Each structure stands twice: as C-alpha cells, then as structure tokens.
Amino acid sequence: MTKPLALVYYERLMPGTQLVNRLQDLGYRVLTLTEPSLLIETARKERPLVALVDLVTNRANICSIIKEMKEDEETTHIPVVGFAAQKDQKLHAEAAKAGATLVAYDDALLPQLPHLLEHALRVE
Q1: Is the pLDDT of residue 15 over 90?
Q2: Which domains are delineated in the chain?
C-alpha cells in the first residue's frame, strides 16, 4: 500500500524541516516546495492527500495562492493547513478567508499534528 502524500511549502527553515520530519514519522510521503507559485500545479499533478503551507513568505501572496487552489476544480478538495506564529493574527485571518481548511500556530503545529491532520481530513 502506498503511503499518503503530503505537499509542504515552507520558506522558514524552522518549523518547515521539523514538519517534514514529523510527517514522515507519521507515515506520510512528503513532497516539499520552495516556490509557492508551484503549489497549484504540483497539487494537480501529484494529487496529495493534504497540503501544509507556511503562511510567512516573501516570495508570493500565499493567501491568494490558497484562494486559487480552493477555487480550482482539480484542487478544491485538497485540505490546506496553513501555519504561522501566533503574533501573525492578520495572516491567520487572511488564510482562513482564502479558504484554508485549518490555520495553526507554529508552536502548536508539531505537537498537535496528528490531531490537526485528522481534523483537516475529516469528510463532512
């Protein structure tokens, strides 16, 4: 049986690398992206079970990309979990408005990852 695929975009080394390691520990295959502009194209091609997105980036308007992903008929079903520091409340709100399934604080991401994934993957 094939391991589920998690698509991860991060710019910040921490918590990005820790997230990748934790996902692998949980039995996921992980495909990392260093360019947020490739998120939708890669999601269409690779069909991940979930996308985890670092909201703190200087490379693109990540919330616009999340919105595009959620509006695209080929990627709308993919849960998106955004993450940023607790102090970035405005960014959290923008990501939620853009359609992120969940938005988590950096310091809660790793310890709560199994629960967050379970919640994000819940079919309603």
Answers
A1: no
A2: 5-120 (3.40.50.2300)
Confirm if 8 and 19 have CB atoms less than 8 A apart. Answer: yes
The alpha carbon of 21 is separated from its chain's Cα centroid by a whole number of angstroms, namely 15
Q: Is the whole model's pTM more than 0.90, yes or no? A: yes
The two structure tokens encoding residue 4: 């589920």
- Asked if residue 99 lies in contact with residue 80, where contact means CB atoms within 8 angstroms, the answer is yes
Q: What is the pLDDT of residues 69-121, one digit of tens each?
A: 999 999 999 999 999 999 999 999 999 999 999 999 999 999 999 999 999 99
